[in-house]
Design brief:
By secondary structure, this protein is α+β, with helices and mostly antiparallel strands. It has helices at residues 14-30, 38-53, 98-103, 148-159, 177-186, 197-203, 220-233, 246-253, 266-269, and strands spanning 59-64, 80-81, 87-96, 109-116, 127-134, 167-171, 189-193, 213-219, 235-242, 264-265, 275-280, 291-293, 296-305, 310-319. Helices cover 29% and strands 28% of the residues. The chain starts with 13 loop residues before the first helix and ends in an 8-residue tail after the last strand.
């Protein structure tokens, strides 16, 4: 049963099954919005997502997760999920934006991506330097090694606009102070996020996302998740792992990463037939958050598939009396 390929389960609407996984995590996390307890919010999302995966018809292995096996109860790297089916790699972030959720801020999401075995970069849980733009642009219009002003100039030229019209999205972190200064010196605008760089990268590729370029460092697992989304929506992305010491380099070598300075392209981080799903936990630019009403909730999700290029928005109405969603 485990050697069946993805085509064999296409009639099961696997993409919609992934939405049910992210819905469960988002609903469970929503109970903790604004309570100041990020660990509890994350734990609730993890457990709900793990339980929801039990009904998904795949033989899944988590390759992008929240830690190693000894850090359970997180969905750890190497954990097996699914109830049997084609061999798939899974990238998960049950709650991207734990601090956001704890504080009741915008843009927290539950997210998951899926590809056939071996098609995701097996990235360690360290920082990654990232740059991303949307589709319909010349290849290599922006690169990690180019100066900020040069990237902005080339992007503005490709889009037929002035640099002053460009919006750059990045995490609001002290480590980005120099980049922020250079972006503003060049005349572009900046959208600073408290957390949630997956949503920030996706916004650069969606019509009406209001973002022209994503720039800066964030988690490597989130980088692979963002790359999976961009494989579906179209766009360009580069990522380079940022190692702090030799121990991290050796750990990465054990995961198959032989060149610590390598710049990975979008198709090297996520290739093949990729599916991506996300559900809003708190309301943000991309998705509305969970709206809890009495003994139920309304969720808002996005689901994409690279093979078809289809992007669907799903509004779900849930009755807690009829199913257990970790409420």
């Amino acid at each position: 049963m485990t050697d069946r390929r993805l085509e064999d389960v296409s009639d099961r609407n696997l993409a919609l099954e992934l939405v049910r996984v992210t819905e469960a995590a988002a609903i469970a996390a929503s109970r903790w919005i604004g309570r100041g307890k990020k660990n509890e919010a994350d734990g609730a999302a993890v457990e709900a997502m793990r339980k929801a995966f039990d009904t998904v018809a795949i033989d899944g292995t988590v390759v992008i997760g929240e830690g190693e096996m000894d850090e359970a109860p997180m969905l750890y790297i190497g954990e097996k999920v699914g109830c049997g089916g084609p061999a798939m790699d899974i990238a998960v972030d049950p709650l991207e934006g734990t601090t956001i959720t704890a504080k009741g801020g915008p843009n927290a999401i539950a997210t998951v991506a899926l590809a056939e075995r071996g098609n995701f970069l097996h990235a360690p849980d360290i920082y990654m330097d990232k740059i991303a733009v949307g589709g319909g642009l010349p290849d290599g219009v922006v690169t990690l090694d180019a100066p900020v002003r040069e990237n902005l100039k080339n992007l503005a030229l490709a889009k037929g606009v002035d640099i002053s019209e460009l919006m750059v999205c990045m995490l609001d972190r002290e480590r980005h102070a120099e980049k922020i200064a250079k972006i503003r010196e060049a005349g572009a605008r900046i959208l600073l996020l408290g957390d949630g760089d997956v949503a920030g990268v996706i916004a650069a590729s969606l019509p009406g996302g209001g973002v022209d370029m994503y720039l800066g460092s964030g988690g490597a697992p989130e980088g692979v998740l963002a790359a999976a989304a961009l494989r579906c929506t179209g766009g360009q992305m580069q990522g380079r792992l940022m190692f702090e010491d030799d121990a991290q380099i050796e750990r990465a070598r054990g995961m198959g990463i032989t060149d610590p300075s390598r710049i990975y392209t979008l198709n090297e981080m996520a290739k093949g037939d990729v599916m991506f799903a996300a559900t809003g936990v708190t309301t943000g630019a991309m998705l509305a958050g969970v709206h809890r009403v009495g003994q139920g909730a309304v969720t808002y999700s996005i689901v994409m598939r690279s093979k078809s290029g289809t992007v669907r928005y799903v509004e779900g109405h849930h009755n807690f009396a009829k199913k257990n969603l970790g409420v």
